[in-house]
Design brief:
Distance between the termini: 56 Å
Mean pLDDT: 94
Helix content: 40-55%
Shape: elongated
Oligomer: single chain
Number of helices: 4
Number of strands: 5
Strand order of the largest sheet: 1-2-5-4-3
Strand content: 15-25%
Low-confidence stretches: none
Radius of gyration: 17 Å
Structural class: alpha+beta
């Protein structure tokens, strides 16, 4: 009985935490991105200034929003972060259907 009560309490707390993180992800995503030339542009310095957990959540939210296929692995997120942290601009062919493009301090997803 007590275990069930404690377990339920923990589950509710985790659910509440996830809802908070989801709201924070959406809000922050909207703060560090804008639309230009029909592209959702992410401000790279603002993204890199965030906590690592939030950065990864925002990357996944961005990819889901853009409706592009991607593996949900830590290695994949780390690969994207390495590209975004690199000082050079350019295009990173992430997938046969899309690329990540960096121009100045912004990045966008280019659907091929």
């Amino acid at each position: 009985e007590r275990f069930a009560t404690n377990f339920l309490s923990t589950l509710n707390r985790l659910q509440s935490t996830e809802q908070f993180l989801e709201k924070l992800t959406h809000t922050t995503f909207n703060e560090i991105s804008h639309i230009a030339d029909n592209q959702r542009m992410i401000n790279i310095p603002q993204l890199l200034a965030l906590d690592e957990t939030l950065r990864h959540r925002i990357l996944m939210h961005w990819l889901i929003t853009e409706n592009v296929p991607f593996p949900t692995t830590q290695a994949f997120l780390d690969e994207l972060m390495r590209f975004l942290q690199n000082k050079n601009g350019g295009t990173h062919a992430v997938h046969k259907n899309w690329s990540l493009v960096k121009k100045q301090k912004s990045a966008y997803i280019l659907i091929l």
